[in-house]
Design goal:
Chain lengths: ~450, ~290
């Protein structure tokens, strides 16, 4: 089929017999479709001049116009109608004129707004009537997204633990070029089997990548991986970025940041809120601080791994925010443990307590999630107790540095220490309830 | 359905108003009789004494501030006991300790009446909106008869077994709540002192696994230092104290609740007892002249 380019930028069919008959059936389809759309149209539609507002307010002529044109002059009608009505934005969809009208009309009545990035790619599902479910794009609180070509090209990931593994897996599944490292090499196998590359040291990972993420367990490992012998800093340089998503204290973060920046590279601290399941589901919350330019260029990657991110200013602010959040969380878990235990000891059903709490002002997802297994004395590890205690300790250190009294956090920290002494370090932090139980 | 209502404080007023609006005939009593006026404007009758109310009504609900008030309404002259008899039910929705509740139960049932303890979870706004969570225990038959009233005042009711269980459940819930409020206060202040924006902390918390309606509701007003009372701090401290006593009786370790209770005591010492319990936030701030 030979196509003409109209003034509106649309590719339109030239007059040919085969095309003509296909257009007749197309027009009949248009009429039926238009009738259906008009009958179920939104209050936006202005029927008096047959001009229907689409979702981005570009007016389109009702397909009734096309039906009433004499068949022999159909092509001219179509062309004139489209020239007058359609904005250039629709011209990017490579489609015959009537279908373009259907598209906008369908999008008025049936389809949720197609995000800009998908529309630009010529997302074909716009053609499908009643295609709402297929078009449902998860709404993210964080919208700075980019097409695949805008991802930093080579992404490194250091630390394949509970968090690092699913985070790196999500990046690979999204099509990123990922190189991994872990102190115990075998932990990289789930990633290499998905197509990740492996390098034997943080230095070599950093050297071969544009941006390197690090997810380590504590300040000591974070410093060792970044600044140690064969550390990532040795492989950094201008044009590269280092994003430390470990949870550490501000001083450690600043130390790492200075070492990285001394190489000419950019640095972003970006600890996360969320544990194993949010990491697997790409639902983490990033609490970032440091080089704003690096934050901008890794936004698309954060968007894959998380549901939202915050930029908090200077290095140290991300670390502080994470510690404050986890301090509250640690106290809440300790208090919840006291409640569960007390309810059981005084003859109530702790499962009923969990249910009562879930209906009230203190209902939190964490309680709903952990409560039932805590009642069973089961603590499947989503967030190791030793790391929660580390965070409480660092938060208390932060409080001390600003001379602030935190008696409840201090009391909670004691419980985590007791739990550690009972050998519960690697259980989920909900195992803190065991510290309250009297041992036989 | 005709009910009596004793106690028209922050909670009682809102709850009895809801009953009136939903077509219940309500006879009210309050120690300070003038507090009945607004209810009378909406169609309530007034009883001069608790006994007068109980004499008139098949069911009487009580909403008093603490164990002492709950006992006084029952045992004192012209109290509930003077008029309670077979065929009548007494529903105490005050938050008290299990012993107080048991004592009242024994006295009521000794006179042939039926008794239900039914403390609530939820403060002023849930009371106004009929969104309380009701934690009932005692006589099941009375619970079943009270359900139409509970459905008006609350969004969910639980029947928890023998007298004492409702009281205990309420205390456990409020113990967790008091500790959470303290943890939240510590976090807000630490964020502020570390150079972070407390509003940003609220935004982060709201997305996290620890998000909850209390933080969402109280966070903004706490940041502004606004503690207009939905749940008076003195009552929260009373609940912490009663919960700790429950732990004492059963030799249960509760260090976090104990630390939280200390903070509430300190707040009372600063004269903040009549403000909202979120005013405990002031105790983690550097010392300032006490505001009321």
């Amino acid at each position: 089929m030979e196509l003409n380019k109209s003034d509106s930028g649309l590719l339109l069919p030239r007059r040919q017999t085969a095309v003509f008959s296909s257009h007749l059936s197309l027009c009949l389809f248009c009429f039926c479709w238009a009738l259906f759309c008009t009958l179920s149209s939104t209050p936006n539609s202005e029927t008096k001049n047959c001009c229907i507002q689409s979702r981005d307010h570009s007016p389109t002529y009702c397909p009734f116009v096309f039906f009433f044109c004499p068949v022999s002059g159909l092509q001219r009608c179509l062309r004139r109608g489209m020239k007058l009505a359609l904005k250039p934005s629709y011209g990017k969809l490579l489609c015959p004129a009537p279908m373009a009208v259907i598209t906008s009309q369908a999008s008025t009545t049936f389809c949720p707004p197609v995000p800009a990035r998908l529309r630009v790619r010529g997302w074909p599902f716009s053609f499908l009537p009643g295609g709402s479910p297929a078009l449902a794009v998860p709404v993210r609180a964080f919208s700075a997204s980019a097409s695949a070509s805008e991802f930093p090209e080579r992404v490194g990931f250091l630390g394949m633990g509970i968090m690092g593994t699913p985070m790196a897996q999500n990046l690979i599944k999204a099509g990123c070029d990922v190189t991994v490292w872990n102190r115990t090499k075998s932990k990289c196998d789930p990633l290499t089997s998905l197509g990740a590359k492996f390098k034997p040291s943080p230095e070599e990972v950093a050297a071969s990548c544009d941006v390197t993420f690090a997810m380590l367990a504590d300040p000591e490992s974070a410093v060792e991986v970044a600044c140690g012998k064969l550390g990532a800093a040795n492989g950094m340089g201008p044009g590269k970025g280092y994003v430390d998503v470990s949870t550490v204290d501000g001083a450690t973060s600043k130390l790492i940041g200075e070492r990285i920046k001394a190489t000419g590279a950019l640095f972003l601290e970006a600890p996360v809120s969320g544990s194993k399941k949010p990491a697997e589901d790409g639902q983490l919350i990033f609490l970032t601080a440091g080089d704003k330019a690096l934050y901008g260029s890794v936004s698309s990657l954060l968007d894959i791994m998380g549901k939202s991110s915050f930029y908090l200013g200077d290095v140290g602010n991300g670390a502080a925010m994470k510690l404050v959040v986890n301090m509250i969380m640690g106290s809440m878990m300790a208090s919840f443990s006291e409640g569960l235990l007390l309810s059981e000891k005084v003859g109530l059903d702790p499962n009923v307590l969990v249910e009562v709490v879930s209906h009230g002002a203190i209902s939190a997802p964490m309680y709903k999630l952990k409560g039932p297994s805590m009642v069973q004395s089961q603590y499947p590890t989503a967030f190791p107790l030793k790391h929660q205690q580390k965070d409480m300790r660092l938060a208390l250190g932060l409080a001390e540095s600003v001379s602030q009294s935190t008696p409840v956090a201090a009391a909670a920290n004691e419980l985590y220490k007791v739990a550690k002494s009972h050998g519960l370090s690697d259980e989920d932090f909900s195992a803190v309830i065991e510290a309250l139980k009297s041992k036989q | 359905m005709e009910v009596g209502f004793l106690g028209l404080g922050i909670m009682g007023k809102a709850m009895s108003m809801n009953l009136l609006k939903h077509g219940f005939k309500v006879t009210v009593w309050n120690r300070t009789l003038s507090k009945c006026d607004e209810l009378v404007e909406h169609g309530a009758s007034v009883g001069e004494t608790p006994a007068a109310v109980v004499k008139k009504c098949k069911y009487t609900i009580a909403m008093l501030s603490d164990p002492a008030a709950a006992l006084s309404v029952v045992f004192e002259k012209d109290g509930v006991l003077e008029a309670i008899c077979g065929g009548k039910g007494y529903i105490d929705m005050s938050t008290v300790d299990a012993e107080t509740s048991t004592k009242i139960n024994e006295a009521i049932t000794a006179k042939g009446g039926s008794f239900l303890e039914a403390p609530v979870s939820g403060s002023k706004k849930p009371a106004e909106d009929g969104q309380l969570v009701i934690l009932a225990a005692g006589e099941k038959a009375l619970y079943d008869e009270a359900i139409p009233a509970f459905d008006v005042m609350g969004k969910k009711s639980f029947f928890l077994g023998p007298v004492g269980n409702g009281a205990k459940m309420k205390l456990v819930v409020n113990m967790i709540m008091g500790s959470m409020m303290n943890a939240f206060s510590e976090g807000l202040e630490l964020a502020d002192k570390s150079g972070l924006d407390p509003q940003t902390l609220l935004g982060v918390l709201d997305l996290a696994a620890i998000a909850n309606p209390m933080f969402r509701l109280k966070g903004p007003t706490m940041i502004q230092g606004n503690y207009s009372p939905a749940f008076p701090l003195k009552h929260q401290q009373k609940d912490m104290r009663l919960a700790l006593a429950l732990g004492d009786e059963n030799a249960i370790s509760m260090p976090v609740a104990a630390a939280a209770n200390e903070a509430f005591k300190k707040a009372r010492g600063l004269g903040l007892g009549d403000l909202d319990f979120s005013a405990v936030h002031e105790t983690v701030k550097p010392l300032k002249p006490a505001s009321s």
